[in-house]
Amino acid sequence: MISRQHTFDHLDHLSDHQGLFEHADGTTRRLEHGYCTDDNARLLAVSVREPDAGTAGRLGRQALSFCLESQAADGRIRNRLDQHGRWIDQPDTKDWWGRATWAFGAAAVHHDDPEVRAIALRSFETSASCRSRWSRSMAFAALGAADVLSVHRHHAGAYRLMVDAVARIGVPDPADAPGWYWPEPRLTYANAALPEALIAAGAALGDPRVLDAGLAMLTWLVDLQTRDGHLSVVGVGGRGPDDPDVQFDQQPIEVAAIADACWRAFTLTGDSGWSARVVMALAWFEGCNDSDAVMWDSRSGGGYDGLRADGPNTNQGAESTLAFVSTVQRARAAQMVMA
Predict the structure, then answer these.
(1) Alpha-carbon torsion 123, 125, 60, 191, what sign?
(2) How many Cα atoms are found within 13 Å in the side-chain-facing hemisphere of 49?
């Protein structure tokens, strides 16, 4: 497995003093596309799983600064910063709000530095006062709320955010679409974040109905995306009930979301079947996939941008590299408990 020291190398290569660039041509960062909060929030969330030292610590603090700058006074979040350091969009509550809220919550609990934890908690509280009409954005935000509630058990803002996230995501009724245990007509992207949010909310709110629904949704989702013993995840165009089983391009973000959700399911249930699924997610990056293609670069430490029928798209952008890094982190933890 990739070494802990090597894990953040490519992310460092994609960064400068302002933040993490979004896109790459091979391993070369594409300056003209600038930066996005989506990726810098992901970077903050994965960096706080590591000690506040070395490359991970430095990048994590830089990512926190980026996310703080992206936050408007009312808690909404800007997403796009051009290469010259100018925000080019308006604050909103789309995915980047959800991911920033998630990252603030993670940093508020898991960062080594109490001063950073305090800053992140205040920022979480500001953004947690907002709501989004998009279910994934609410799911991402709910994961930050779950982190906050794990330490601040009576945090009213985190509690209310979780309640509203459950309502926005919804719990599917098998009678509505037999064989399609999902609250949407199609799978799209980062799908496992929805059941993970329900699992986290069910545990934090003490609601076994929501917890069981999240576990059932995740079981259905992973089973649907498993073929011949390996992950065969939804393609970039999404998947409905009547679409083919094998699709391309497959996105690393989907695999990372599965690893995150299965790790949470394991930590709450102790069922070793969930930790085995985390390891299966890492195996997808290592070549156990529909194209028998390795999905990361052992020289750079970067993750490839997509799996095609003929092999990988070898560009190594921020989203895909962060998906790989996150999956490595979860698989390390899973392998430790399985040893």
Answers:
(1) negative
(2) 19
